[in-house]
């Protein structure tokens, strides 16, 4: 099939700050076996792209960026059975390249969108919502009535996860950096909010749990919060360290877990929870139902043209965004 298409993509040719993002014209050929070609209608902005850009998650260069997008299937490669030209689709893992007007994508990462999920909505929930799904429902299913600590509660993943946990009957203590974000977190599932710029997280968590601590901490802030998060856990509690917004966590001696009473520690990735096609379909269906039924409200609080991805990343890194951010090609 002859199918060359001229596209534009945000790429990096070297690691660095937002200034290394370039707007490149490229040619994409026909999708290969097992691939589909997708014209993007909306693209999700996620913190992972900042790690990729600055080199914390090093990638062979030059590379396109972006992990999450929604759009329409333009062409289908050999062997792809579950998708057809014209399907409305989205994805949240697989090779980087979502920051583009169109691309070829391994079809096993791509799901069809129900009619009630718009492109912008899909681009704002696929990565963040599937992350919330595996954090709460699969790493260790949360239990009704228990209390958990969730950092960055007013952020993209945070708003979705805290609403979901609240729906499941969990009492969520959220952390945020400002009083404005505290109001947002309270409106999105947090029963209690700790404002990190003026409150001590460990002391407040202890006070809110009769001195006992929580059974699970969800920590995407990383370096700055890791040790405090361990100190918020009750003995045999689970530390879910799933991000590095403040920098990568230093190496962890196992004695840190032993001294605090047989703590458990996991460092999960969305990719490993969506690699199995059946698990991806099941998790996405659950997410679409939670959002479609109104149990989780999605706030797209920032929109940027794809070309302005550098501005969008700058705001995300500077803690100036809340909820989801989409890039429009
Ligand atoms: P957010 O919208 O949550 O933005 C990050 C937030 O982290 C900020 O708004 C800020 O909230 C908080 N933060 C604390 N310290 C810092 C700091 N030094 N610099 C910047 N932000 C800081 O982003 P996303 O929803 O895109 O992602 C949330 C986290 O989840 C990221 O760490 C990301 O890497 C991780 N993630 C992990 C996945 C996995 O499978 N492992 C998958 C998806 C996301 P505040 O100002 O309130 O403190």
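Q: What amino acid sequence fits the structure above?
A:
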């Amino acid at each position: 099939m002859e199918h060359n298409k001229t596209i534009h993509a945000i790429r990096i040719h070297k690691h660095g700050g937002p200034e290394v993002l370039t707007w490149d014209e490229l040619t994409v050929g026909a999708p290969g076996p097992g691939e589909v070609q997708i014209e993007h209608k909306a693209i999700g902005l996620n913190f992972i792209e900042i790690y990729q850009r600055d080199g914390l998650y090093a990638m062979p260069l030059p590379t396109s960026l972006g992990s999450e997008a929604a759009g329409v299937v333009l062409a289908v490669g050999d062997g792809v059975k579950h998708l057809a030209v014209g399907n409305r689709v989205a994805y949240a893992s697989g090779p980087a390249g979502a920051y583009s007007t169109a691309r070829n994508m391994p079809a096993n990462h791509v799901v069809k969108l129900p009619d009630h999920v718009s492109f912008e909505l899909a681009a704002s929930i696929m990565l963040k919502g599937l992350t919330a799904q595996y954090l709460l429902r699969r790493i260790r299913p949360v239990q009704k009535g228990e209390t958990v600590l969730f950092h960055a509660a007013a952020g993209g993943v945070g708003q979705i996860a805290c609403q979901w946990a609240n729906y499941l009957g969990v009492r969520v203590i959220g952390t945020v950096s400002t009083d404005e974000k505290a109001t947002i977190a309270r409106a999105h599932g947090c029963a209690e909010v700790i404002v990190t710029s003026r409150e001590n997280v460990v002391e407040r968590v202890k006070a809110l749990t009769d001195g006992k601590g929580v059974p699970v901490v969800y920590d995407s802030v990383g370096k700055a919060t890791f040790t405090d998060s361990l100190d918020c856990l009750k003995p045999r509690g689970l530390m879910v360290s799933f991000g590095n917004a403040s920098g990568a966590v230093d190496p962890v001696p196992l004695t840190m877990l032993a001294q605090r009473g047989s703590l458990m520690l996991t460092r999960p990735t969305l990719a490993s929870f969506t690699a199995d096609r059946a698990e991806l379909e099941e998790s996405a269906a659950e997410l679409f139902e939670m959002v479609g039924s109104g149990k989780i409200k999605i706030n797209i609080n920032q929109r940027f043209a794809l070309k302005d991805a550098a501005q969008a990343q700058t705001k995300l890194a500077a803690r100036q965004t809340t909820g989801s951010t989409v890039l429009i090609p």
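Q: And what stands out in the fold?
A: Residues 154 and 180 are 9 Å apart (CA to CA).
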